Queue: 4 jobs
Job 1
Amino acid sequence: MKPTIALVGRPNVGKSTLFNRLTKSRDALVADLPGLTRDRHYGHGRVGGKPYLVVDTGGFEPVADDGILYEMARQTLQAIDEADAVVFIVDARIGLTPQDKLIANRLRQLDRPVRLAVNKAEGMQASIVAAEFYELGLGEPWAISASHGEGVRGLMEDILDGFTVDPEPETLDHPKIAIIGRPNVGKSTLVNAILGEERVIAFDQPGTTRDSIYIEFERNERPYTVIDTAGVRRRGKVNEAIEKFSVVKTMQAIEDANVAVLVLDASQDVAEQDAHIAGFALEAGRALVVAVNKWESLDNGQREQVKRDIARKLGFLDFARFHYISALQGRGVGDLFASIDAAYEAAMVKLPTPRLTRALQLAVEKQAPPRAGMVRPKLKYAHQGGVNPPVVVVHGTALEHIPDSYWRYLEHSFLKMFKLQGTPLKVQFKRSA
Ligand code: GDP
Ligand code: GDP
């Protein structure tokens, strides 16, 4: 698992500037798609080969209550709770403030690593910048400049040093399915419906609240692992405490899966949170199947309306198959698995170089890349660079002139020509000599 780093601090110290710097290095798996909304508070990044997840806790401000009691905003507390390490950001230009001291008091009680980053320190002498912040009792202050990128790498290397990150996640030879979605859409009901009929082989109890449950089972003599982000509620028990929704948990599950099943609630409008979760799956490049749940509770008119709402708001998921199910009645679950199997096969597909190159030539014959001034990009040959998602590396010249629209055209063409259903596909360009 990637370590999760939370960025904490008063407003205006530079949290979002640092967040942007920490997340933009990762080459986007998908081009910006119309309708794709990203959650700007959660992102992936990588420093020195080590990946991490970073959370910007946003507009946190300690709230004064009777001048004595202070509380961190709920969202910030949850983010800190889920984080493996915290970067506490203060402002070198403003200096130490009473609010900084209050935040530091809370952070000192944590049982996880905290780094103190003194931001906006460009053009200042590090030792002088740091001096007044020692009294926060959070160790050596790191003088950084988020906007100029100074000191950021060293800080991140220092944090990540404390974590061992698996170089390559093991690739399983069977589908590993993450059941994702916002609270109350029916994730646990679906997991129960799936497992109700099947032979459960192993069951992992979660270690912490932020962990998902991993369940291995067999269906039609095929092994599967389901990653349950909701936590199976024991059948029959109605009033079990509803777990807090955790974005970090959802993102970790997506990363660790090879197929994601996004559950939507047909009895409610598609919400911003649905689109964010879909965006996480897409950015991770995961194969995806969408389960529109509670379908039995709608009449025909409502069903048409739901389909239109989905098409409008989640149009960027056009590569995925949609299923209209009732987890409660166990309806549609079998068909869902047909799509899960297909999506898994597509995500893991091996495409030989000659066939890929032929497919590239066909796509170019049908539609050549547009001329940019005097130059026209030339696409020569292609080979596969990875699976889950399939990556196609296209070699050629003047590739920097290829517009995003043509990029998407190529990705669509490969998906279509190889009949890959349920997975995104990524095209990378590589200049040939
Ligand atoms: P947040 O409220 O903590 O997320 O802070 P922002 O990232 O929005 O930054 C607040 C302001 O500080 C913006 O005007 C930024 O441009 C500025 N800022 C952020 N980082 C730096 C820095 O390293 N140096 C300077 N001089 N300004 C910065
Ligand atoms: P989770 O928070 O996503 O795990 O959602 P739950 O599985 O706990 O379900 C939330 C609520 O939706 C519960 O009251 C379920 O009984 C109900 N529910 C789940 N699936 C269906 C369904 O297919 N149809 C209907 N009508 N209700 C459902």
Job 2
Amino acid sequence: RPLSVVTLCGSLRAGSYNAAIQRALPELAPEGMSFSVLEGLGDIPLYDADLQAKGFPAAVTAMGEAIRAADGIVIVTPEYNYSIPGVLKNGIDWLSRLPDTPFAGKPMAIQSASMSVLGGVRAQYHLRQVAVFLDALVLNKPEVMVASAQQRVQDGKLTDEGTREVIRKQLAAFAGFIEKVAR
Ligand code: FNR
């Protein structure tokens, strides 16, 4: 059976470098791994337990179902102020409150891109900490941190061959990881 992977981008902007990387994933994946993009992160209201008591927003329910049905999730995110963007944290906070939380036992791979020389490493390690509470199964290596992203993405396309190669390696490792831990 082929592996189905959902991808979530922590940036909402149209010209996002992280979204460019997310778009490149299908062409860098091993054979038998298919992708679908989780849409609607920006449509999720700010978390409020009173709102939750009235029922989960449709965007949360739909995203939760898509994650639950997938064999794994790849999160591609920028770093904001040395952490993950609030919009991503907000989405994760909502998803974590769903009954039968979709992240528990779910293989997860993390990628980040930033305009700085560290490529979002601090955001990645904050996301790893969040994933502990989610009980997600996070792939350790190889890590994908795309530094100076503005030099590696041209016209919305990930063109840098070195970056493409490390992503190929991570996705191949992710396929093996999913087989090992979750199938
Ligand atoms: C940033 N940026 C940034 N970069 C970084 O490497 N470390 C950081 O802590 C921050 N902090 C930060 C905060 C806020 C509020 C913004 C808007 C930006 C810069 C960031 O890397 C750059 O904007 C990227 O282009 C964002 O990713 P996308 O939108 O291109 O995917």
Job 3
Amino acid sequence: MYDLGVKMKIAFIIGTRPEIIKMSPLIDEVQQRDINYVLIHTGQHYDHEMSQQFFMELELEKPHYNIGVGSGAHGEQTSMMISRIEDVILKEQPDLVLVEGDTNAVLAGALVAAKLHIPVGHVEAGLRSYDKTMPEEINRMVADVCTHLFFVPTLTAATNLLFEGVNPKNIFVTGNTVVDACQRNLKIARKHSDLVMDVDPERKVLTLTLHRAENVDHPKKLGQIVNALLELEDLTIIFPVHPRTTKNLQEFGLYEKLQKAPHINIIKPMGYLEFLLLLSRSQLVVTDSGGIQEEAITLNVPCITLRYNTERPETVEAGGNILVGTSQERIVGSVRNILGDEDLYRSMKGAPNPYGDGTASIKILDIISEIESNDGLKIEPPDFITGVTTTKLVRVDENVNVSEFEEKYSAIVKMAFNDGEVVFPESELNLKDKMVLISGTEL
Ligand code: UD1
Ligand code: UDP
């Protein structure tokens, strides 16, 4: 037990633009609840437009530590993060380390904390693209091996984790904090309607963002995307460019081509408020960003994703997002198709948001507080012989729910199947006539 009067301390690890944005509602919530926290910035993003401006807009306190790793190759950047985060964690001794998403900070932070036996809470856990050429996929998977509390946005993400053998008791379906951030900040942004640049009201606005290594590090793919944009002359394209993309467009001789096109507005990365306003007023968004796929469906803006797979399949299944890859023909064809077909446009706009109702941060903090009050934030080696765990697939004939079944048979229900479909085994789920995958030492 914690000593009376000693409050839990949470360490937040962030490093890039989307982590600052998606962690901000959690940091607000921690402050409101008067929980101790320490904010550690890895310094992976360091330009004013990629980091500091979000602290200012979101009224976040300056990080307690900025370990200033800067840019570099994956091994160099991640190893520096590991070593410096370890120093800070050893000094600060938090009770819980929270990481968000799939950047190098998530991998480094989760690994350090797990090895120090400090529980890791992974916000936005369980996402999978099943494409291991993406650095983000490796980060997500390794982080989830180190994670203790899995805060997943959707049941799809929960199911991904079940298939990897994660104990469902540690999985919490909370929605995504991106909705919390989006709803809160769009309200603020709307009060400043002068934020967005003037655009010709006669023309449709397409917002574009692009930064994935698998797209912008390849001259051929980037060239095809640029050609598609040049072809879409009848639209106004607003393109706040990520620094990685600026560098590569310049290096591949493509930057000038875009700059010369009168229908394309190439601008610096935008502040969050201005970007949300722009997005909410756009007819269409074309992106390879993860967060923007989520924000588009939250703001009812049809989305075209310049990727061949997505770890956000819910947006595609809901009908708000279409994957087109990077071919010029497919990009142009999809834009024309969506903007030219009223029924399709309306159905994409009306796609239901799978990421929750804007209360993810409250749910996450409620769960953490409850676990902490039950002394559950401790990772200790067992001091008893654990026995040998067996896993079995069985059919349940009794009228019992998951909790009752687990108590009766001293087993954990890891997965339940209803007519071949996976069902998340919540405690109240009735198991009668379901197949269940159970695991225990006394089976
Ligand atoms: C990183 C994340 C990616 C996330 C993205 C959010 C990893 C492996 N990648 O990608 O998952 O979607 O952030 O935007 O963690 N640069 C600057 N100024 C900056 C930051 C970067 O000029 O403040 C330039 C540098 O040339 C750098 C390049 O951008 O080499 C790439 O930056 P890096 O942090 O390695 O990856 P991102 O593409 O930003
Ligand atoms: N964003 C922003 N200004 C911009 C572009 C994006 O504030 O010019 C925000 C956007 O609203 C979203 C986040 O940055 O919340 C997405 O970050 P990014 O696309 O860099 O990373 P990803 O989500 O793909 O990891």
Job 4
Amino acid sequence: TLTAGVIAVQGDVSEHATAIERAARAHGEDAEIHEIRHSGTVPECDALLLPGGESTTISRLLRDEGIAAEIVDHVDAGKPMLATCAGLIVASTDPQDDRVDELDLLDVTVERNAFGRQKDSFEAPLDVAGLDEPFPAVFIRAPVIDAVGEGVAVLAEWDGRPVAVKQGPVVGTSFHPELTEDSRLHDLAFFESVEA
Ligand code: GLN
């Protein structure tokens, strides 16, 4: 059994839970999902999901609830985490926005809502390192990754910009991999040790 925690202070949760269960099943495992709203549960989890939503709100609630430090400990222990969209912004070292209290777990500079200026939302077939077929990526007011640090592997690019990255046990995507039936990104983040 994979014990997975989906951070549920704000943002979409059930779609991620479904995707994690599907990914686990593909490996002949079942998943026990904890929806995390308070401190105390993260230490029990083998894997974490930091979903999209509103990054300023999520980061504030993570600090207020004492969850932020637990997430940092989880990653320091080498356990996997998938951070999507606003989750990527919160996990970054540089969100370029003072209202985001970043976790410093992914050495990337992000620009909030930067893909959203042209189009609020779009879907694109993405070539992702480690996946045989393109991934249907849904972007919703998505952040652009402006710069990546040395320890960061770029797993996918769109329009010449990184949109999926990996550093140690953390995978970050600017898109929403939970919004299609395709759970290969959850699989890749939690079960595979892919390098770009
Ligand atoms: N625009 C949001 C933010 O900057 C992220 C969008 C999302 O998670 N879909 O926090």
